[in-house]
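Problem: given the chain below (252 residues), write out its structure.
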Amino acid sequence: MVNSDNVFCIIRIRNWNDIKNVQLIRNTVNVDSLSNDAIRLASQGKHKEALEIFDKALDLQPDNSDLLLNKGMVLTASDNPKQAISCYDKILEKNPKNIRALQEKSYALSILGNGSNALGEIEKAESIESDKTILNDRALILGKLERFEDAIKSLDKALEEDPNYIEAILNKGVMFVNLREYNEAVSCYNKVLSLQPKNAAAMYNISLVHARQGKSSEALGALEEATKIDPRYSIEAKRNPILKEIMSNTDI
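Solution.
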């Protein structure tokens, strides 16, 4: 598994704006209204309430692929990947080439630790139409399978499409860490910071690299910068054995 000892920040952004951009079937005003309400609640982290409303909408249109996809994404976000897969399978029964369903199913499978099947699903999506998000997801799955060099190749393909793709650059750094190529990893994180100076994940990962190298002062300095940007990283650091130890005599 990737970084089982020292958890680095791996990025797979699925914000709720992605869902808002999915074209919804609008032939029923009630379904449209329910969907919008569910998406709003999901964006607020109210997953249980969102799922209840998606179910009401699906009572009206049980085969609506977009509703099923959105419900699956909320289920995944609420730590119910098995139930999410059931939603994606319903979509794929109707349309085996639904790229989004294949992509989200692969992610849910990877959460469950089923890396081989996850890779199979994402490669189906890639064979239909590849884009940078699919290549990033493929890399994350390969990383969980400890195929770090193959993961980097997948991320490089994503970066050919978009050289400033933050997720891919950050995740490439994580793969280099797993290969113990720390200088390459830090170069990736610095690239992220050159594009987004307030990217807390990149700064936090730099602190972890320094900690692995035994550079306590550098690790604390980077961690302090990360927590200034996003105080939640202070909590995250206290869960990490190495950072917790070097933080013992600080106020971070």
